[in-house]
Amino acid sequence: MTTYGGHEPVFCTVVPPHVLDKLAQAEDPALAGPARRTLQRDAYERTHRRLTTVLGAPAVAPPADAEPDKPLRTIYDARNGTDLPGKKVRGEGEEPGKDATVNRAYAGLGATFELLLKAYERNSIDGNGLPLDATVHYEKDYNNAFWNGEQMVFGDGDGEIFLDFTIPIDVIGHELAHGVTQYTANLTYFGQPGALNESMSDVFGALIKQYTLGQTAAEADWLIGAGLLAPRVTGKALRSMKEPGTAYDDDVLGKDPQPATMDGFVRTGRDNGGVHINSGIPNHAFYLAATALGGHAWERAGQIWYDVLTGGELKAQALFADFATLTVAAAKARYGDGSEELQAVQKAWEQVGVRTL
Predict the structure, then answer these.
(1) 356: pLDDT confidence band, cut at 50, 70 and 90?
(2) ∠151-298-223 over CA atoms, to 5°?
(3) Pairing with 169, which of 55, 113, 336, 351 sits 20 to 30 Å away (CA)?
(4) Rounded to the nearest 5°, which phi and psi values hold at 223?
(5) Is this structure's pTM higher than 0.90?
(6) What amino acid positions are annotated as catalytic residues?
(7) CB atoms within 10 A of CB 54
(8) Of residues 16, 1, 331, the one with CA closest to residue 194
(9) Helix, coil or strand: residue 240
(10) Percentage of the chain surpassing pLDDT 90?
(11) Is the pLDDT of residue 287 over 80?
(12) What are the residues facing 162 on neighbouring strands?
């Protein structure tokens, strides 16, 4: 199979299918209609991504005159259509315009680039200065954001359940982190490897938000998608890394199904084997390790997770135990035997019920 730049991209959305499925069954057409259209559009984009992977998509290289260690951002406006990328509305270095959505997307791409560069010495998501492209105002009432293997895409939300998807910076970071995974461990998007894929995006999405706000692990809310839910929704975010399963409990959306430990592991054939559900387990392990260590989570806990993701030993089919074992090894290699970092990581996995081999 021909793959994108030697890496096989997948279509990754921030709102799980089980949430949209629930909305699509709502009696109120104002809720069900956008959810159904979003599911249909996601299915189309997912199929399109597979076809592109089979046929082969060209690798994207930065222009010859690109400044080293500087982002190269381009924001496009789909104008509520579906043709990508759309009309260019802001390029790198250009002043903010009147469209707040465009400005948020531009800032979010920049914040992601900055964290990767300053914290981990990584030049863009591929490590080689990959240009960062994003399209806003995608479709009408589109209730999702996604990374399609080549660029970011943001919907405006329906205004009833979801607001503009550029509002939470961690959503922007989450989707771009799928690109980092694509260019490194390339975790298979199914079952436990897929849940790890989703968890890596939640971890780095949370770190980007914390880095931007200058928060310590103790100060952070550890929520993914805070500010995304409309006022009528009984909930605070899409997911909680601190308390998986508590992000929302709503008459229309249902209850957050994420487990915090292996005791609650969900076996399902939906959502690629529950990738957005069981990601709560490694998410919680990271939260536990980061808060045990204190300080800025991107510095020690984040460094360990980054070492594993990019170290070359994490296999595409890795299970939770494989990943956990590698984090223990990475903590030992970077910080030493008997270090508090090693102890924090070991205890975190023990608390969520994942054995280290």
Answers:
(1) very high
(2) 70
(3) 351
(4) -100, 145
(5) yes
(6) 175, 276
(7) 11
(8) 16
(9) strand
(10) 88
(11) yes
(12) 229
